[in-house]
Amino acid sequence: MKRVLIILAIIAVIILVMWLGFQVKPQHFKALAQPQPEMETMEIPQGLPKPVENFYRSVYGEKASIINSVVIIGHGRVRQFGIWLPTRFAMIHNAGKDYRHYFEATFFGIPVLKINEGYIDGQSFFESPMGTYYNDANSNQGANLALWAEGAWFPSLWISDPRAHWQAIDDTTAALFVPYEKSEENFIVRFNPQSGLIDLMEVMRYRSPGDTDKVLWLTNEVKLADGSAVSYATWLDDGKPWAEFVIDDVRFNLDVSDLIRARGWQE
Taking Cα atoms as reference points, which of 49, 45, 52, 47 lies closest to residue 198? Predict the structure, then answer.
């Protein structure tokens, strides 16, 4: 009996240590030192669906910034194997064309899992200890959607890139069409009737290589009392977010030609 109690106590301590380790938030990556260049602006286009026009005027006013590249530094959580892993990340975008993500999941703030993924020249890649694959057809489709969905952090992309266009649905909903290979795919974008901001984006997306059916993929952002915001990504059949992201620093229109093809994050 004593031996059983000792074993149970050891298991309890291990569980407690594991739980504590995953409660420690990692320090976010250092921001880039390059100064941000002055950004050009553009008029809000005429003829947008009413909720879309209201959104852009709520965010930008009369003129929107023209974004060519973005470097985002942040922290959050990613749910893997039913466990929420504290994470820090860097996201680099050649707006509307390519992106690279770098994630570090941490334990007591120490990186224990590193993932590089992205979509460059129309081909996806995923590199991690759990598996690596390149230019998978399902992943290409999902990565292209992520490329455009993350434009919610720099939404002038959706009116500055002539390949993207909007279609009215009703007073609070519109369809956003984006290019994919030789065709198009579309998001359903739902706007808040009071604030005019985006409440939810949804699109059919492949979740994994080898899947034969797409799953409804949802993204949204929730403003917090301190003025910050948390962005969520959710698979509808899962019913709860699998990722939470908080931005700590964002830089626009830097030269990312080398950074987007690198791996990891150099501090």
Answer: 52
What pLDDT shows up at residue 9?
63
Residue 108 has pLDDT above 90, yes or no: no
What local confidence, expressed as pLDDT, does residue 228 receive?
Answer: 81
Q: What are the beta bridge partners of residue 51? A: none
Listed residue (91, 89, 81, 88) closest to 107, CA to CA: 88
Q: Which residues make Cβ contacts (< 8 Å) with residue 175, sequence separation at least 6?
A: 166, 167, 169, 186, 187, 188, 189
pLDDT higher than 90, residue 191: yes
Residue 62 to residue 41: CA distance in whole angstroms = 10
Per CATH, domain 2-261 is 2.50.20: yes
Written as six digits, the tokens of 33 are 């030192």
What was the pLDDT predicted at 48? 97
What are the boundaries of each domain within the chain? 2-261
Per-residue pLDDT of 50-87, as tens digits, reads 999 999 999 999 999 999 999 999 999 999 878 899 99
Q: Which amino acid is at 82?
A: G
Report, in angstroms and rounded to the nearest whole number, the Rg of the chain calculated over CA atoms: 20
What is the C-alpha separation between 166 and 82, in angstroms, rounded? Answer: 37
Q: What is the 8-class DSSP label of residue 154?
A: S
